[in-house]
Design a protein that fits this description.
Elements (H helix, E strand, L loop, with lengths): L1 E5 L3 E2 L6 H19 L3 E9 L3 H10 L3 H18 L6 E4 L3 H16 L3 E11 L4 E3 L17 E10 L5 H9 L4 E3 L1 H12 L5 E2 L1 E2 L7 E2 L2 E6 L1 H6 L1 H4 L9 H6 L4 E5 L3 H14 L7 E5 L2 E3 L2 E2 L10 H8 L1 H9 L8 E3 L1 H31 L13 H5 L3 H22 L1 H7 L1 H22 L4 H11 L17
Parallel strand pairs: 1-3, 1-13, 2-3, 3-4, 8-14, 13-14, 15-17
Antiparallel strand pairs: 5-6, 5-7, 7-9, 10-12, 11-12, 15-16
Helix pairs in contact: 2-3, 5-6, 6-10, 11-12, 13-15, 13-17, 15-17, 16-17, 17-18
The chain binds 5'-O-[(L-methionyl)-sulphamoyl]adenosine (MSP).
Length: 471
């Protein structure tokens, strides 16, 4: 069985921050878990590199968009490496093969009569790279970028999205195509029911983009370009279509709430227009604030993943991100909260459990105790994308084990009743092995060490996995 999982292609206007890392780490966990279950997985990541937003950022840095994009795309790759993201394909929308395939897709739509000429008159937010309706604005500004959108009036090509409104409504409301959580599904349905208009798919004055194949005076609207990455990363319409044949359609597309609407309308509309099978589902997660504030460079509160890794290590960073908030809800993080959680759950919780049990076994039984089988697993949570609940269950198991040690006063028992102590240590060792196994998709390196230690012929004290960190 195959499993195709995708993340948004992130803009290269800056290096990745903790919000990007959150989606990508979540995808990595789900991809690793699917692999553990024996599925053949393709896990897509990438960067979105065309359009006005990137041009402006490059100008500000005094670089060409291409050089600027190269540098930032590399920063994304470096960050995924230090976070141990085991992706299958990294697509850049400036890859030649992507550009060619985008033009092929547009040609198909054009020949089908699904693209027509017109004039776009309205508002445009460069930060979002999106056309805006007046009711999207708060006090005349884009709420996400705190900026007044530009007034735009230009000749444009339109994709006849309105023709797909009814079929989209049917597929989403019947759950043939799933949008989770339910609240997001309902928001999107009511948006679609309020009437889908045809969408502009070209820009006349943006040179940094893929030229329309049927009119070179225009470039492709950056979202249309970007969506197609989910196809082109698999080689769709390229020379080698093996991955496309094997993995299409996506089993899961992850994103945050900011881009669920465009995905549910334009992206799905394009797929219907291309006669391609729709993805099985979107899972839409929430947004992080930092100490109650929107994360922004101007506020200086951005959390960079490389700083997280420096402080906590890759595995603990992954743990802290995913255990901070139920997946699907908005959340708030801060250095302080993360440090406290690190100390509580990892240094004092799991780390302490490991060192207590391993020490007792090495010191009192010459390292010779066999792990008992228990029946702990978190598959039920992972099947439902409940990453937070899965980690909470692991934490509860750890707490149970630490409490079991306290209540049985096992450090005394090893002197007074060795047989009973051996039995309890066997149960504890079994719990540790299962905790290690469950943690494997979340904390791959740590989990490997835990499982190796717990299943060794001779149990040893081993290294301290999570040294305490001062708050
Ligand atoms: N380039 C488009 C996506 C095109 S996909 C065909 C884009 N890029 S982005 O760089 O702005 O990334 C948006 C995504 O980054 C969100 O959907 C989410 O996955 C992640 N996040 C960005 N900020 C975030 C938070 N503050 N909190 C959680 N996730 C965040 O949109």
């Amino acid at each position: 069985m195959k499993y195709y999982i995708t993340t948004p292609v992130y803009y290269v206007n800056d290096r990745p921050h903790v919000g990007h890392a959150y989606t990508t780490v979540a995808a990595d966990v789900l991809a690793r878990w699917q692999k553990q279950k024996g599925r053949e997985v393709f896990f897509e990541v990438g960067t979105d590199e065309h359009g006005a937003k990137i041009v402006q950022a490059a100008q500000k840095a005094g670089q060409t968009p291409k050089d600027f994009g190269d540098e930032k795309a590399q920063a994304f790759k470096d960050t995924w490496k230090i976070l141990n993201i085991d992706y299958s394909g990294f697509i850049r929308t400036t890859d030649k093969s992507h550009e060619t395939a985008v033009q092929k897709a547009l040609e198909i739509l054009y020949r089908k009569g699904l693209i027509c000429q017109g004039e776009y008159e309205g508002l445009y937010c460069v930060g979002c790279e999106q056309y805006k309706n007046p009711d999207d604005l708060v006090d005349g500004k884009c709420p996400d970028h705190q900026k007044e959108p530009e007034k735009m009036k230009e000749e444009s090509y339109f994709f006849k999205l309105s023709e797909f409104a009814q079929i989209l409504e049917e597929k989403i409301s019947s759950d043939e195509f799933k949008i989770e959580p339910e609240t997001r599904k309902n928001e999107i349905l009511s948006f679609i029911r309020s009437g889908l208009k045809d969408v502009s798919i070209s820009r006349k004055n943006v040179v940094w983009g893929i030229p329309l194949p049927f009119d070179k005076e225009y470039t492709t609207y950056v979202w249309v370009d970007a969506f197609l990455n989910y196809l082109t990363v698999l080689g769709w319409n390229g020379e080698n279509q093996e991955n496309f044949k094997k993995f299409w359609p996506p089993d899961l597309q992850l994103m945050a709430k900011d881009i669920a609407r465009v995905h549910s309308t334009i992206w799905l509309g394009i797929l219907l227009a291309l006669d391609l099978p729709l993805p099985k589902r979107f899972f839409v997660h929430g947004f992080f604030t930092i100490n109650g504030q929107k994360m922004s460079k101007s506020l200086g509160n951005v959390i960079w993943p490389e700083d997280l890794v420096k402080k906590f290590g890759a595995d603990a960073s992954r743990y802290l991100l995913l255990s901070s908030t139920p997946f699907g809800q908005d959340g708030d993080i801060s250095w302080e909260k993360m440090t406290q959680k690190y100390n509580a759950d990892l240094a004092n919780g799991l780390g302490n459990l490991l060192s207590r049990v391993f020490n007792l076994i090495e010191n009192n039984f010459g390292g010779q105790i066999k792990a008992a089988k228990t029946d702990f697993n978190i598959d039920g949570f992972l099947e439902n994308f409940q990453l937070f609940e899965a980690l909470r269950a692991i934490k509860e198991k750890t707490d149970w084990a630490n409490k079991y040690i306290d209540e049985t006063k096992i450090w005394e028992l090893v002197k007074t009743d060795k047989e009973k102590a051996a039995k309890i240590l066997g149960e504890l060792l079994g719990a540790i092995a299962e905790i290690g196994e469950s943690l494997a998709p979340f904390m791959p390196q740590t989990a490997k060490k835990i499982m190796e230690s717990a299943r060794a012929e001779k149990i040893r004290k081993g290294e301290v996995l999570f040294p305490r960190i001062e708050v």
